[in-house]
Structures are given as C-alpha cells and as structure tokens.
C-alpha cells in the first residue's frame, strides 16, 4: 500500500513536468514509505527474526539441553541464522548510507542498487544451497548421530522421503523468488526507476 502511495505521488509530479533531482531524492529518502525506508525495514526484520529463531529452538528443547548442544542439525541452523544476520546487517548498512546522504550522485546510487540486486540474487541461490544441505544432513545424520525425530522420518520409504524433498525444493524455488521480490526486488525496481529520472 505504501509503495502504491509513493508511486502515485511520483506520477502526479511527473504529470506536472520533469521533476527535479531534489524532488526525486525526497521520494527516495521518504522516512515513512520511501523505497529506501522499505528496504531498511525489510533487512531489519530479517536480522531480528534470524536472531530470535535459534533462541526459540533452544527454549523449546530446554528439557534436554545436552542433546541440543551436541546436535549437528542445531549447530548447522545456528550457523545459517548467523550468516543471514551478517548478510542482512551489511545490506542494512548500505541502505542506511543511501538514506543518510544529503547529496546523492546518480552513479553512486546506481552502483549501490547494483550491489543490493546482486546480493538479493545471491540470497536466492544461498537459500537453495542451504535447503539442499539440510536435506543431505537429514539423510546422513542418522548414520553419525542418533536423533529420535529423524528415526521416525527414516522409517518412511526412500521413495516417499525423496518425493517430499523434490516437492519441497520445487515449492521453495518458486515461493522464495516471489517472497524475495516482494520484500526487496519491488523496492529496488522502483528505486531504479526513480534514479533513471534523475538528471
């Protein structure tokens, strides 16, 4: 809704005539619903969520803390969440830099947007790699470490398990692209279109 409001404001300004760089900068850096503010919020949410999730996993397993600390799956999840937090922090810092500049040079903005777009593409690839890693871990882990939950999973036939993995990977392939576009891609695309209007 906020993005639609911003686009409407931009269209109104565009009908009046060629908008000035200062007007475009105002639209870009709008504290409430500008594309930079939206990106900042999205990266901030991602950092907070990934910092809280391992804590929730730990709290739900308080009755058996020793097993949690020796669980390879748990530590893999911790490393994954920490990686996402670090990745989001770097992106958040870049977006804050864009928001805090008084005067932005068009080439600088274009370069920063290219960096963010590349990072979002890498995030899409990273999510797929992590999904495959956890699938392999679920298949290999019972031979290394006894985990009751995985015993139940391995009691299913390999055909059922691998069919579920394939369905999960296919679903993840389409949904992750859509979600990442909604959270980041749409704002980056709009930011690019605003910057193209700059002189």
Question: If helices are DSSP runs of H or I spanning 4 or more residues, what is the number of helices?
Answer: 8
Order of helices and strands: HHHHHHHH
Mean pLDDT: 81
> Quaternary state, please?
single chain
Shape: elongated
What is the helix content?
over 70%
Low-confidence stretches: 12-18
- Percent of residues in beta strands? under 5%
Rg: 22 Å
Can you tell me the number of structural domains? 1
Overall strand count = 0
End-to-end Cα distance: 28 Å
What does this structure look like?
- This protein is mostly helical and 199 residues long.
- It has one domain (2-196).
- It has helices at residues 2-16, 21-28, 35-60, 65-69, 72-100, 106-144, 148-154, 158-196.
- α6 runs antiparallel to α8 (158-196).
- It starts with a helix and ends with a helix.
Keywords for this entry:
199 residues, single chain, mainly alpha
Q: Brief overview, please?
A:
The protein has 199 residues and is mainly alpha-helical. The chain has helices spanning 2-16, 21-28, 35-60, 65-69, 72-100, 106-144, 148-154, 158-196.
Describe how the helices and strands are arranged.
Blueprint: H1 2-16, H2 21-28, H3 35-60, H4 65-69, H5 72-100, H6 106-144, H7 148-154, H8 158-196
Helix pairs in contact: 3-5, 3-8, 5-6, 6-8
């Amino acid at each position: 809704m906020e993005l639609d409001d911003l686009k409407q404001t931009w269209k109104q300004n565009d009908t009046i005539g060629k908008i000035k760089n200062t007007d475009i900068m105002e639209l870009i850096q709008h504290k409430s619903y500008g594309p930079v503010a939206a990106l900042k919020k999205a990266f901030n949410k991602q950092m907070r969520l990934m910092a809280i999730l391992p804590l929730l996993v730990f709290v739900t397993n308080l009755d058996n803390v020793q097993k949690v600390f020796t669980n390879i799956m748990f530590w893999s999840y911790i490393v994954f969440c920490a990686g996402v937090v670090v990745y989001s922090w770097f992106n958040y810092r870049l977006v804050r830099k864009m928001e805090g500049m008084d005067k932005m040079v068009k080439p600088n903005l274009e370069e920063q947007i290219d960096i963010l777009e590349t990072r979002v593409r890498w995030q899409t690839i990273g999510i797929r790699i992590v999904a495959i890693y956890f699938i392999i871990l679920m298949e290999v882990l019972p031979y290394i470490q006894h985990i009751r939950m995985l015993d139940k999973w391995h009691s299913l036939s390999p055909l059922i398990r691998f069919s579920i993995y394939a369905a999960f990977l296919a679903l993840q392939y389409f949904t992750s692209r859509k979600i990442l576009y909604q959270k980041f891609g749409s704002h980056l695309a709009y930011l690019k279109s605003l910057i193209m209007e700059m002189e």
